[in-house]
């Protein structure tokens, strides 16, 4: 895992941030979430599940 502040870390954060932004998460929140995911890879699955529940409509329900 690259260390925060390194070039590799910045590249990974930027790519992850863009993916989150493309998924519909607001810019500022996408940046914070990307940093949090890269700093705590063990919590990645739980964090992404939380994001999915918030932003992805469940089957059979209408999105707002």
Largest sheet features? none
Shape by Cα distribution: globular
- Measured as a percent range, the helix fraction is 55-70%
Averaged pLDDT, please? 76
Beta-strand share of residues: under 5%
Q: Tally the structural domains.
A: 1
Can you give me a brief rundown of this structure?
With 64 residues, the chain is mostly helical. It contains three helices and no strands.
Structural notes for this entry:
- With 64 residues, this protein is an all-alpha fold.
- It has helices spanning 7-22, 27-39, 44-55.
- It has one domain (7-53).
- Helix 1 packs across helix 2.
- The chain is globular and about 45 Å long.
Q: Topology of this protein?
A:
Elements: H1 7-22, H2 27-39, H3 44-55
């Amino acid at each position: 895992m690259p260390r925060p502040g390194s070039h590799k870390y910045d590249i990974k954060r930027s790519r992850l941030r863009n993916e989150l932004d493309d998924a519909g998460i607001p810019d500022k929140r996408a940046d914070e979430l990307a940093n949090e995911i890269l700093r705590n890879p063990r919590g990645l699955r739980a964090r992404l599940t939380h994001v999915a529940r918030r932003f992805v409509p469940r089957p059979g329900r209408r999105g707002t």
